[in-house]
Design goal:
Length: 295
């Protein structure tokens, strides 16, 4: 018996969502709300943040996610330069299954930062090990070629991948995080959280209330369940997409201070709900479908 790459992606996404729902109150409440309706979350997209720097044995920047995406049938469909944020961003979509979540990856262009900041980043990430085992690498190759794996092999690969989507380097110095945060909160976040999911966006259709159920109704229902969520009002020019968001929440994360490794509280993420008003047949011709990386 074999498991397809699309099934592995679903299982991995649900595992990452479970971790996200534990870390964030709004995500946890939303998950319980969905279960109360006997619904499962459908993910519109999953976001990751990276730094374009030498990260040891792990590919740096966008490549840290890109090098895995292709094995699972994803292809890059768009790339952007966001100059005012010193970011490059890429969008991935599954080639065969449009129901799988899109993947959004951004990278901070470290070479444009001051020298002192580059030195801190390089000193933190330069000796990063690669979290996927040799057996996992071979299974990825087979999966990319055949599109499926035996169930036992698929479970082994999932275990490897679960270990990949977290911070892969040692905890950063808290004093360095504070310095970098004044220059680039994005950079401070990456040093603390690494390959962890930066944001989940749950699709409106997750809530299982029929085709006419829209984002306004989702927000009303979530508010009645004690979840503070607001429509995003500044998506001017994006006619095909509507979003709502919860405020970013803090979570515990490791950093090093004068007493050694300590758990600090740091702003991690919020939750997005996305409503797509129509499906584009040709994404490349409709860039306005993506209000990318507002934060």
């Amino acid at each position: 018996m074999k498991v397809k790459s699309s099934e592995l992606i679903n299982t991995l996404a649900n595992h990452l969502w479970e971790k996200y729902a534990i870390e964030l109150d709004a995500a946890g409440k939303t998950d319980r709300f969905l279960k109360g309706r006997q619904c499962n979350p459908v993910f519109d997209h999953i976001m990751f943040r990276t730094v374009n720097a030498h990260t040891g044995e792990q590919p740096g920047g966008i490549a840290g996610i890109d090098h895995l995406a292709g094995f699972f049938g994803y292809r890059q469909i768009a790339k952007y330069s966001i100059h005012d944020k010193l970011l490059t961003a890429a969008v991935y979509q599954h080639e065969e299954n449009s129901k799988l979540p899109r993947i959004l990856v951004s990278q901070l262009e470290v070479s444009h930062l001051p020298g002192w900041a580059q030195k801190i980043i390089d000193g933190t990430v330069a000796e990063t090990p690669y979290a996927i085992s040799d057996n996992g690498i071979e299974l990825l190759r087979v999966l990319g070629q055949q599109g499926s794996l035996p169930v036992e092999a698929g479970n082994f690969l999932l275990a490897d991948l679960k270990g990949y989507f977290q911070r892969p380097w040692n905890p950063p110095l808290f004093s360095d995080v504070l310095k970098l945060n004044e220059l680039s909160p994005y950079c401070a976040w990456v040093l603390l959280f690494g390959n962890s999911v930066a944001k989940f966006s749950v699709a409106v259709q997750s809530f299982g209330a029929g085709e006419n159920y829209n984002l306004n109704q989702v927000c009303d229902d979530l508010k009645s369940a004690g979840i503070s969520i607001q429509l995003i009002a500044d998506l001017k020019g994006y006619e095909n997409i509507r979003q709502a968001e919860t405020l970013p929440e803090k979570t515990s994360v490791e950093a090093i201070d004068e007493d050694g490794v300590e758990n600090i509280r740091w702003e991690y993420a919020g939750l997005h709900i996305t409503e797509r008003l129509k499906v584009n047949k040709d994404f490349k011709e409709e860039k306005e479908d993506w209000p990318l990386f507002r934060d």
